[in-house]
Amino acid sequence: MDFKDRIYSVAEIVGISSMGEKIPAAAGRISTLEGDTHEILEKSQDAEKNANLIKKVTRSNHTSILEHTVYNIAFRNVSILAEQFMIEFRLASFTVKSRRYVNFGSMGFYVPELDGDICQDEFKKSVRACLEDYNALLDRGIPQEDARFILPYCVFSNFYCTVNARELLNIIRSALYGRGRLYPEIKSLGEQLMAQIAQMTPGIAASLSDSRPELSDRLSLSYLFKAKEGANERPKNANEKSVELISYTSDAEKTVAKAALTASTQYPLSEIEKLLEDDGNLTTVLDKVIACSRPRSLEAAVYTFRINGVSLSEITHFARHRMQSIEIPSYTLIDGKRYVIPETVKKDPVALEIYINAFERMDEVHKKLKNAGMPEEELVYLRLSGSKLDIMVTMNARELLLFFRLRTCTRAQWEIRGHAIEMLRILREVSPGIFNRFGPSCFVSKCTEGTLTCGRMDDMKKIFDPMNKSLSEDVLKEQTA
Question: How many CB atoms lie within 10 A of CB 27?
């Protein structure tokens, strides 16, 4: 099969707020000039004056005015690696071509500008072999969401992004001067975006100085601390904890209830504490909070997890949750021998051989090209989507309510569903008054999947019933049946 490949990836601004720089300029004037919003806007029609004002205001570090201009960007035939770089910016909206539902067997792939024909040929040959293996798995009936684990991170992705000017400049700054500068593809995307916004909105573009120094926005501590020999090795048995709760709000139920009663009654804290001595009152408050369409009181309870053995594919699912703090390691730390194996692959001996051979072959190619002098950052393109890393996430209970509604649903991808259910099981032990009420949408209230519903609402209510002490085990059995 003749797979496409190309050197250059494209970031094209396909839409922009109809008012361009007029609203940011008006926002810069409104706090210091007389007149209402309409009158200020009427004074903000001159493009050159607007650009100069925006430069002046942003140079004083008042950059919030930039948020009033919004761009729509189409990323065309960029690598999965570039996609992951972009979606880690949480103040933007992304819609990505799904590797769960779309066949990527002939999508094409990004090829970095490598030194020497041997490296170029070895890179292309190894990627094409993986794509052939991907197609072979599909031919054997392996679902696309499982076959995708052997897609290299150089395979093309296509997605849309909508972002305001302030966050877009943060993206460009990181692409040009931060961790993105180490990847010629990502740096090129930053340059493309910078050129376009300079043409469309010169005042906004000028707020990002071309003389910015290189920024170390990727924390690296390994050179400071030398771990014991073998510290990175994983146990050969299956007993490694998949989810570890690092810290959490103690007495979270009462903390949330105190927040809710403060906001809705203005009673003094002493009176609220007396009310909450009655467990019935506490239950009533928590029920009302969780049923509310704006359960802000849940944000008072915060939880930090270390999640072990997360595939690169699953990391993209975690990263799409915006209201969280997430620590994703550099992909240069990936151990090529550590990867996920789907149950559908395990059940087919031929598919299993294809799958394991793909990881082993690519790990050998990785070592070979590294010895040939290929930079670590470009070797990342050869990592397969099923490779595992350990991550840290911090979410408040409000975000966890959304996370569990989506990720414990039967329509969720099985890998993140397994981690989500284990997270829920742990949280029910430390904050049962809150998390006994959490689960998929059909458990919390009603199914929201419409015609795509699994139709098993009664079963889900039984599985997620707080009295079910074997939640994770029951779901594991269900997923592997």
Answer: 23
